[in-house]
Amino acid sequence: MVEQELVILGNHKNTYTFSKSLAEKVLKKLRGNLRVTIVRPAMIIANYEDPFEGWIDTLAASGGLITAISLGVLHFYKSNINSILDFIPCDFVSNQILVQTAFTGMEPSSNLNVVHSSTTNRNPMTLGFARNAIVIYS
Fold first, then answer.
1. Backbone conformation region of residue 84, classed left if phi is above 0, alpha if psi is from -120 to 50, else beta
2. Same structural domain for residues 55 and 92?
3. I need a surface site. Which of 61, 81, 109, 119 has the fewest CB within 10 A?
4. Can you tell me the distance from the alpha carbon of 125 to that of 77, in angstroms, rounded to the nearest whole number?
5. Are 37 and 61 contained in the same domain?
6. What's the whole-model pTM score?
7. How confident is the model over 50-75, as pLDDT tens digits?
8. CA-CA distance, 105 to 99, in Å (whole number)?
9. In sequence order, what E strands does the chain have?
């Protein structure tokens, strides 16, 4: 990284987390009396159910890794099979956005809410489980 970039990023580890933080600060400052909820999803993966199981339309993030494994392009990935993956199906995130929109609209005052969309605490997925699922469904 260029030295100036490191100074600009400050405590952020990359431009992605920096830009997310910047957007949230702008919303907080300029939202006026609007009720706003920001949904922060974990790493989004293929759909669980809707519009159909396994649907995905991108190779970004986990999509590329899972596609490479499924096609047999990637045969080895050094990791710990007991590691917890912070994945969430796309349709779970879409549903949460709809629910959060309703809750935000019913709030009596103009708040700025930030909620996380993740299954890790209630339904953690290990890398070993994900590996087995990829092998079964590929």
1. beta
2. yes
3. 109
4. 17
5. yes
6. 0.74
7. 888 877 777 776 777 777 877 888 87
8. 10
9. 36-41, 43-45, 84-85, 87-89, 112-117, 125-126
